[in-house]
From TrEMBL:
The chain crosses the membrane at residues 12-35, 41-60. Keywords: Membrane, Transmembrane, Transmembrane helix. It comes from Neorhodopirellula lusitana. This is DZANK-type domain-containing protein.
Length: 142
């Protein structure tokens, strides 16, 4: 399974959990109520489904970029669901990191400095835009 196949699988599980929530919880609650005789069955089924949904959403959001290994959709503390490229190294969504000639971001692991995904210059943690190219993570659609 390729890295993008893993992301497709994560996304598919996420959407299945969203789209089947109401009918799934209703059927599970009816079955559990008949099996256990408890009226709390619907609440148990709903909480379990929401927990599964939360885990699936976290797994989609924290999908590691195939090129740089950082979370593809997360920049600072925000999640950019509609981004078309990695917010750290600019690898296009669905792109092949083995044929793409993009320099991987430098190893800035400090919480004080971040790296601009456009020009790869350092951005101070208290700044909202890149001083070199003007890139703003607020303008990323997230």
């Amino acid at each position: 399974m390729t890295t993008w196949d893993s992301y497709r699988h994560r996304r598919k599980v996420f959407w299945i959990l969203i789209l089947t929530y109401l009918p799934g919880v209703a059927l599970a609650a009816i079955a559990m109520q008949r099996w256990t005789g408890s009226d709390d069955a619907a609440m148990i089924a709903a909480v379990a489904w929401m927990a599964a949904y939360g885990v699936a959403g976290w797994r989609c959001g924290h999908f590691p970029c195939p090129q740089c290994g950082r979370p593809f959709f997360i920049w600072r503390f925000t999640y950019h669901v509609w981004t078309g490229q990695c917010l750290h190294c600019n690898l296009p969504k669905w792109g092949d990191s083995s044929t793409r000639d993009i320099a991987a971001p430098s190893a800035i692991d400090s919480d004080d400095d971040l790296e601009c995904p456009l020009c790869h210059q350092a951005i101070q943690a208290d700044e909202d835009t890149c001083g070199h190219c003007g890139w703003s993570y607020f303008a990323r659609g997230g």
